[in-house]
């Protein structure tokens, strides 16, 4: 994309140069070692017409390239939004499965309590049966007539009364133990049923979430394939237009010379930009290495630390699903072309790493990071604020960090690297998130 934009700038510069030479009639003559033959008025008119026609073709092809470039940006943004939707659905599925597992564990604990209550009831019933059997086998008449009739002395009467009272207390305790055991069993049964019901509901929710996730992934994969085909078509169109553009530029020796001068300038600008980026990255990395982690930082020092951690990753490749608070990591292998051995950041992973240096843990998905801080108008954005992008009518699909002077740092898309670029306005949300 950057190459095409540079080429558009080149073409516009060449167009100005060609038109200027044609209108003055002296651009080519001054470059010759000897005066050329004096052309007739008709030769000059035909020459001007040819140059103007070629310049018009260059301008038309430049506009077509700009439109194709815009289409490529739109397709990349739509593909990123589909990926975000699939990742969010997978997060929901994992949460539902965790809830189901917890409910099953509660059900198992309730089942064990029910078993324990059942054993307690059996023991209490056995104890009561033993007391009744023992009383029956001894043949003791515990009633008032039995005490008076069978007692042989006052001492025997007193002993019989104490024994009868002991038997009565023992029976009462056994009966109370039986009742408590029954209540415990009823409570345990109720808990078991409630836990099992919770497990069933959680499992149903998990299955529903999985169905939604599967559907979202399928839709995302189908959209990715369709987008890839469309991108291939756009690339083929662009290649054809580029060939036409190259042919138009090569038709005139003056254009080729201007092209070389522009390429030299463009190379110098790219080298200077790369040197600035390396210097910024190395300086930031050095500060991060010296200062280490400091969760207690606040204010300007915290903002500087967050920006330094992000800037220290300039040049690291984009990997969908890659990166966390500890640094770059492997991404999520899927139908979008993210193999297991690729290590890097996606947009939200880079923000997680930057803010973890001051003890702030951001959510994983960019649309959730939008709710992590205070809402501020993007017109009042300050260094360290998070800025977000979305397509019309679609969820947030991209996050970047404003670093000052109209620039932002981002992990852009598959095939790109972490970079600092001017803050884009297309698709920019009117509100930013201020975490610090």
From TrEMBL:
Keywords, ordered alphabetically: Coiled coil, Hydrolase, Protease, Signal, Thiol protease
GO biological process: one example: proteolysis
SUPFAM superfamilies, alphabetized: Cysteine proteinases, Outer membrane efflux proteins (OEP)
Signal sequence interval, chain numbering: 1-31
Coiled coil: 58-113, 255-289
Gene Ontology molecular function, alphabetical: cysteine-type peptidase activity
Superkingdom of source: Bacteria
UniProt entry tagged with the keyword Coiled coil: yes
InterPro entries named among the record's database cross-references: NLP_P60_dom (IPR000064), Papain-like_cys_pep_sf (IPR038765), PG_Endopeptidase_C40 (IPR051794)
A Pfam family hit: NLPC_P60
Ranges for domain NlpC/P60: 300-436
Record's keyword annotation contains Hydrolase: yes
PROSITE patterns, alphabetized: NLPC_P60
Family that this chain belongs to: Belongs to the peptidase C40 family.
PANTHER family: NLP_P60 DOMAIN-CONTAINING PROTEIN-RELATED, PEPTIDOGLYCAN DL-ENDOPEPTIDASE CWLO
Protein name from the UniProt record: Cell wall-associated NlpC family hydrolase
Taxonomic placement: Bacteria, Bacillati, Actinomycetota, Actinomycetes, Pseudonocardiales
């Amino acid at each position: 994309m950057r190459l095409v934009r540079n080429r558009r700038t080149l073409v516009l510069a060449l167009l100005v140069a060609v038109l200027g030479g044609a209108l003055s009639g002296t651009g080519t003559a001054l470059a010759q070692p000897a005066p050329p033959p004096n052309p007739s008025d008709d030769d000059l008119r035909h020459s001007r017409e040819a140059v103007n026609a070629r310049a018009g073709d260059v301008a038309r092809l430049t506009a077509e390239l700009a439109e194709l470039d815009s289409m490529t940006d739109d397709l990349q943004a739509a593909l990123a939004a589909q990926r975000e939707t699939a990742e969010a659905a997978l997060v929901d599925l994992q949460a539902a499965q965790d809830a189901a597992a917890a409910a099953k564990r509660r059900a198992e604990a309730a089942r064990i309590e029910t078993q324990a209550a059942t054993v307690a009831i059996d023991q209490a019933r056995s104890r009561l049966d033993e007391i009744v059997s023992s009383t029956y086998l001894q043949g003791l008449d515990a009633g008032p007539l039995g005490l008076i009739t069978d007692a042989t002395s006052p001492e025997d009467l007193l002993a019989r009364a104490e024994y009868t009272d002991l038997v009565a207390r023992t029976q009462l305790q056994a009966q109370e133990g039986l009742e408590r055991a029954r209540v415990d069993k009823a409570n345990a049964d109720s808990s078991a049923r409630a836990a099992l019901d919770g497990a069933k509901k959680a499992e149903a929710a998990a299955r529903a979430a999985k169905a939604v996730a599967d559907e979202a992934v399928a839709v995302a994969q189908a959209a990715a394939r369709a987008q890839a085909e469309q991108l291939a078509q756009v690339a083929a169109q662009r290649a054809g237009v580029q060939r036409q553009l190259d042919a138009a530029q090569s038709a005139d020796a003056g254009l080729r010379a201007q092209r070389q001068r522009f390429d030299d300038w463009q190379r110098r600008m790219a080298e200077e930009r790369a040197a600035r980026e390396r210097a910024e990255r190395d300086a930031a990395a050095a500060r991060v290495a010296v200062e280490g982690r400091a969760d207690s930082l606040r204010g300007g020092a915290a903002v500087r630390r967050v920006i330094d951690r992000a800037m220290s990753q300039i040049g690291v490749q984009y990997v969908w699903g890659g990166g966390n608070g500890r640094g770059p990591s492997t991404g999520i292998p899927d139908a979008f072309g993210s193999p297991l051995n690729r290590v890097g950041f996606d947009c939200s992973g880079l923000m997680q790493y930057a803010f973890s240096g001051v003890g702030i843990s951001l959510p994983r998905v960019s649309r959730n990071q939008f709710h992590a801080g205070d809402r501020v108008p993007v017109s009042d954005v300050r260094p360290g604020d998070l800025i977000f992008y979305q397509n019309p009518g679609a969820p947030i699909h991209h996050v970047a960090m404003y670093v000052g002077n109209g620039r932002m740092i981002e992990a852009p898309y598959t095939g790109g690297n972490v970079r600092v670029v001017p803050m884009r306005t297309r698709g920019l949300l009117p509100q930013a998130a201020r975490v610090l």
